[in-house]
Amino acid sequence: MSDGKCSVVLCELGIILLDENENVSGSFKFTNPIESYRLIKNGGKFTGLGQIVGKIGNYSDVRSNDQNLNFVLQQNGISSTMMSDDELRLLLLQKDSVLEKAEFVSNTTQAQRELRKFAIDLSSSKIKESSEQLDLHVIQAVSALDELDKIINTIGTRMREWYGLHFPELDNLIQSLYLYANIVREAGFRASITRELLERLGLDEKRRQIVLQAAERSRGGDITSENLAIVKQLAYQVILQTELRRIIADHIEGTMELIAPNTKELLTPLVGARMIAKAGSLERFARLSSSTVQLLGAEKALFRSLKTGSSTPKHGILFQHPLIHSAPRWQRGKIARSVASKASIAARIDLYRKGEKDLSLSDKLKLRINEIQQKYSQPPLERPNRNFRNRQFDRFSPGPRGRGEGGRGRGGRYSDDRGRGYGRGAKYRSNKKKKRRQG
Amino acid sequence: MNSTSKIWIYVDGQKCLATPNLDKGNAVYGERLIQDNHKEFRQWDVYRSKLAAAIQKGMQNFPFRVGSRVLYLGASTGTTVSHISDIIGNEGIVFAVEPAIRVARELLENVATRRYNIIPIIEDGRRPKSYYSIFGTVQTVYCDIAQPDQTDIAIENCKVYLEKGGVLLLVVKSRSIDVVKDPRVVIKEEAKKLESNGFSIQQIIDLEPFDKDHGLIYAVYSKHGASSTQEDRLE
Fold first, then answer.
1. Can you tell me the ipTM of this complex?
2. What is the nearest CA distance from A130 to chain B, expressed in angstroms?
3. Nearest to B120 among A89, A120, A303 (CB)
4. pLDDT by residue (tens digit) across B162-188?
5. CB atoms < 10 A from the CB of B114, how many?
6. Is B133–A119 a contact, with Cβ atoms under 8 angstroms apart?
7. pLDDT digit string (tens) for B7-42?
């Protein structure tokens, strides 16, 4: 009995045992196809193969159509190998008739119907499962946060403008939109602004004095109570949205701690969440190379530089990282590169070690950044041998040039590394410039 | 061109593309429903569907007919899939492959659960053997995926599922393959790649102005998949 080949076939509706002549010598129909099929495909422990194991035991040469099915068989003490590619293909093409032979279905029309039902159920369960992933929720949260910022800014500016007709001096005295909105909402008419109110809102005595004095001598006109009621409503919206923003920011921080603690540590919660949002998911983010991480969000500048030979961007979303935007500009590129390299490792730890914190990463990053800050504490000097005309002066000197200099298609936050005079890009760039000047 | 003549109808004196609606009374993506001779048609938007754009731009042969078996890579939300489903009718079958969950959700909700000739497969086109619920060969492979290696993915899928003499419709999005290169050069290179893998190119259609930097390649598969690997080795 212990000779002869057989094939064990995992299909959508169950497991089928075929002998050498492709006859069905045993089968096992899943009671819950989706669950069982996914369990086996994901390399889980599938128990309940039942009597089919005994039947497979009669053969010496066992092959199967699935790596993970081999694994399940192994757990049941059966060693099996994969079918060849041609056999696999043949099997795929005859699937409906194999299902019929195993009596899982009574005819090919029913096979098609059952397979379609299976496909829809399995697809639905995949969608359901992936919609429960927390990183997708972080992506929505951080997008909501960015949109709220825009909304708060827009209606806040309108509120300031409108209330400014009544009390123009307040605009310069109160920087924070939230505070301004609170004053408008609680006091209304400028004459109703009281010392107690300002104290309650956290202003110090000196500023309280200034505001009250300004209210007394204001050059603003009177406002009707109908108009004031609307401005107050606007102010209330600013307050509500600002509070919602705070809730979302806290929520993002909490979720990031849960799903990506290392990324959060290195990139700050919001920047980390934006990165994940840009990449599409934590998994996709973890699969990016650190050079991509560095430039995530600067695609426009990157493709422009590929196309026209203008200078390459140094940072995308990463610019929002406090370490980078607070650094002197000649250090930013270097810091961005080291932050990106550590961030991509952090994301991989987050994904594959699930929530384990690794502090060595941020220590290493700190070390490297100290090194950069010491080594490049002075702005680099202009390279003497450059083809740029009109560029004899030190480009980092604070002067009347401002940031707009540098020609068309430049400027903006990603392009302030122009003038790195090495590499093919620079050569190409200078030729282009010449042509543009001649033309 | 008999097979395509059915999909041109006249609306308010204007000739436009439309397919007989398999899912009566329902529009998939907000397209117009047209009553014509007691039959309902769905207008086929050339700006939304690259297949429609290709027909508009003078596709010579049309591979889809009643009862066709189709493998569709990059089904997305199912705009084009729904029209192919209309054309092939309930005797035909479309295996719609789409790896992205977000768009597959709409494919399932609006198209696949409502039409009995569609089998939705959420898998990566790079692993054709991992598809579930697929069976038998297909007569046409339609591939519209924005990946740098889209042509290789299409070829892999054809090797497994496309029958001899079957048709591959490959939408080439040149911007996904190389942003810098001239689109015309890109599409020629992809066509060459197909030719060296046993396809003969019948027609290349530029989809301008409906889709910028896109082309559609109509190729016929002359080799049989299983033996092709051997022949490749001999070359």
1. 0.88
2. 7
3. A120
4. 999 999 999 999 989 988 889 999 999
5. 16
6. yes
7. 788 777 788 899 999 999 999 999 999 988 888 999
